[in-house]
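Ticket 4471: requesting a sanity check on a complex prediction with 6CS. Repro inputs:
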Amino acid sequence: MVVDLYPSRNSTEVQLMERKDPIIHGSSEQDGPLSKADLLSYEEKGYILFETFFSSDDVIMMKEELQQEMENNKYNHQDDVIREPESDEIRSVFEVHKRNDFMKRLSQDRRLVSIAQQLLGSQVYMTQSRINFKPGFKGKEFYWHSDFETWHVEDGMPRMRAVSCSIILTDNYEHNGPLMLIPGSHKWFVSCAGQTPKDNFKQSLKKQELGVPDHDSLKWLVDQAGGQIDRATGPAGSVLFFECNTMHGSSGNMSPFPRSNVFFVYNSIENKLTQPFSGGKPRPEFLANRQQIKPIEPQENDMTKQTVQLT
Ligand code: 6CS
Ligand code: FE
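Returned structure tokens:
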């Protein structure tokens, strides 16, 4: 019998509970490229941002692939291509590490995988990947949420031992809906009220309304952060690593400039998905990798030359 350490969406009550998992899983600066200062910052804030991590040459290639994915899926109305709630604009394309060879190689890049391994203290595999396009004028918000709350309840992710790596593909400004994070929020788990309807993903990926924290819990988390809400702004080629339980979201994009990022979600090989804690049926493979779980062998990618020398 698997014990549910993070019960959520199983009552009408909201509950704020302390995190039961370490944030950095048994690693030190000897175990990867992150310095002690980087590790401490990630432990404290629940994320770390590297501006201009990749070179301008790499960014040119990433932008070409981004355009390609937009083109390739223009008329694709399958479940793994999510469209905006109020238009036919593409909101997200999932499983980019399978459908696009460049993205597959990028997801296995040694500079990204070694950071994920260091943070998770183990070998890692890809549990989910996606491009969020957030087009100009029509890209709608992603309301506040903890990814882990969804991945635990709807995908059966047992422990908080996963990290999202978001590569900024088009400059993320203050005004085009950058990802916002509540620093330190990863230290508490917000157990949400409500239930999980069948095939919830068909609605939640367009506009998440379940498994989202109530206003009092959000206010409490922001108060714990000293009233701070951070924004992951930076030029294309910047890289954000954020812990699976860090409370985050992003506003709609009213600017003419798209805010497109690719997300690679690395899960510890020790934290494979089990049965959804909601008791419902597992979500589709494009959202939650169950069939191809093997540790990623970090690759030297000559296609991307890193400009940020990690200390
Ligand atoms: O349900 C999910 O897996 C997705 N939902 C959000 C809002 N963020 C994480 C993930 O892409
Ligand atoms: Fe998310």
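Notes from triage: Residues 15-268 form a domain with the Jelly Rolls fold (CATH 2.60.120.620). Leaving this open until the requester confirms.
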